Amino acid sequence: MSSAVRRTWRRLVQSYNQQCARDDAAAHGYSVPTGVWACVRCNEPHLELATLQHHLRTEHF
Fold first, then answer.
1. Within a 13 Å sphere around the CA of 15, how many CA atoms are in the beta-carbon half?
2. H-helix or E-strand containing 45?
């Protein structure tokens, strides 16, 4: 797989995790508190989406 395809796939997965995870959790009956985000890879909690995005950029890429 080329690096461009991997990079695109990684961005799509990250976009899903950031934008659709709450809706997906609600559809499966899980309660997700508003304003709390958790990293999928290391479960580190974040109180703002911006800090989660910074964490993903610096720790997992």
1. 6
2. strand 45-46
Whether the model pTM is above 0.90: no
For 29: left if phi > 0, alpha if psi spans -120 to 50, otherwise beta; the answer is left
The three-class DSSP label of residue 43 is coil
Q: Which residues pair with 37 in a beta bridge?
A: 46
Question: pLDDT band at 55, cuts 50/70/90?
Answer: very high
Paired strand residues for 46:
37
Q: Is 37 helix (H, G, I), strand (E, B) or coil?
A: strand
Report pLDDT digits (tens) over 17-28.
766 777 777 788
**CB distance 45 to 38 below 8 Å:** yes
Q: What is the C-alpha separation between 48 and 57, in angstroms, rounded?
A: 15
